[in-house]
Amino acid sequence: DHLDHARELAESDPTETDREQVRAALREAAMPYTVNVLVDNGETQGRPVIWETSPTYRNLFGTIERAQDNSGQWQTDHTRIKAGSLIRANGGYLIVDALDLLAEQGTWPALKRALRTRETDVHSFDPLNIFAGVSLHPESVPLDVKVILIGTKQIYRLLYRLDEDFQKIFKVKAEFALQTPLNDDELHNYACFVQKKCIDESLPPFHREAVAAVVEEGVRMAGRQEKLTTRFNAVADVIREAGYWAKKEKAKRVEAHHVDRALLERRRRVNLSEELLRERIAEGTYLLDIEGQKVGQVNGLAVLDTGDHSFGQSSRITAVTAMGKAGIINIERESEMSGSLHTKGVLILSGFLRERFAQDKPLALSASLCFEQSYGLIDGDSASSAELYALLSSLSGVAIRQGIAVTGSVNQRGEVQPIGGVNQKIEGYFDLCQLKGLTGEQGVMLPSRNLPELMLRKDVVEAVEQGHFHIWSACTVEEGLEILMDTPAGELGKDGKYPADSVLGKVDARLRQLAEGIRQFGSMYTEP
After folding, report:
1. Tell me, what's the pLDDT at 344?
2. 85 Cβ contact list (under 8 Å, min separation 6)
3. Which sequence spans correspond to the domains of the chain?
4. C-alpha distance across the termini of the chain, in Å
5. Phi, psi at residue 114, to the nearest 5°?
6. Model confidence over 70-92: pLDDT tens digits?
7. Which pTM value belongs to this model?
8. Does residue 19 register a pLDDT over 70?
9. Cα dihedral 237→240→243→249 (10° resolution)
10. Domain 285-521: which topology?
11. pLDDT band at 231 (very low <50, low <70, confident <90, very high)
12. Angle of CA points 343, 344, 347, to nearest 5°
């Protein structure tokens, strides 16, 4: 019928309107025979690999487009069927970010249903247009596709625990490390990565020393001397910013000092909280001694994280001891400002005292430990060794060198254990000492097991090499005591006693004196 009508129009004396009617009639007549190619993989080598960066329902499952005719009615036909990435990846692989997928309403259940039934439907999906009318209903498309979800460990754990279908559909899990071994192959890969970024983003070429500076920052990000970070987005930012400073100086290539400038400027942009804290210390608002010697007082180190910047903070830790039966009192815990890990670290100190000094007498001790001028939650056990040194100093009466800041956790056997954020802690304390004046006696004492993690700034390394700043390490509490107090810690003799002039000998004598005092006062004694 359509062809006959078109033939009649063609045989008559055609006007422009007639010609348009002929063309419309021909299109309408040919419509049922028009082929709509949903997917064309004719030039694709191997299996198709589709990375869907915007996993909306329409983009994943396709849609049937519609158009309004002259009368205002919505019209569609099979040529308006559009394939989604699920169909385009059929026979191959579809890569989707899990968080983006979950953020789209209705998309996650539909994807699970398609993978479970191994087929997908294409239909109009326009929840905002409820008067769109009836659309086409194409046959279901059989699916043979592997879907790869990319996400964090937290998202994986949530889906695994809360969604039973997730466990059945996504059975293969692959974890990617944030670090890679530092070897010749990876160094070559880093250099190639730098070169690729320079070509792709029209950056000046990098001198080999600039590449070495980028590698050094990659090691620093990894947190260990024998590792490189695989957080290439962060590395790429360093490359771009170094290229910017080289362009600003109109340099023909990026040198190492351009990389250093990029890192320095990045730090300046985000370290406002760090600068304000140092100002309070310099003004004397925040009390901290970095010279002299004090009994029962030590400088501890912590790491503050503002999201895009982390830095070391120094805190005064004090200990007060007296006769009593209360044991070690954690003031932060009593004031509900202590996290579970910090509370555990303080409880370990009681175990150390019992193991070392309560084999021949009871512990008759009331001691309080406090982070001075702390106004927020304290958590982590990295200050437990510093708290122990303050406690032993108070019991022995031997003063601690205030120029040495301490970090590291401790176990009941007196072994100093490694902690995190060691570079930030050292650099934070160095900046503080530099602000108030380096004396050549200041430094940081850290666990020996943290030495492979040291990747310090150049100015800190230079200060250490010149003897203006120091880094000590300790494996045991005894080693730490001798560094902090310039006094022999003391070894337990065959008679079960410590030398009288040693730190531990004086602690033992004091604890014995307290025990005798409690026995002497007996039931008359009550806790103050």
Report:
1. 77
2. 50, 52, 55, 59, 60, 94
3. 1-33, 35-169, 179-270, 285-521
4. 108
5. -65, -40
6. 666 666 666 666 878 888 888 89
7. 0.77
8. no
9. -80
10. Ribosomal Protein S5; domain 2 (3.30.230)
11. very high
12. 90
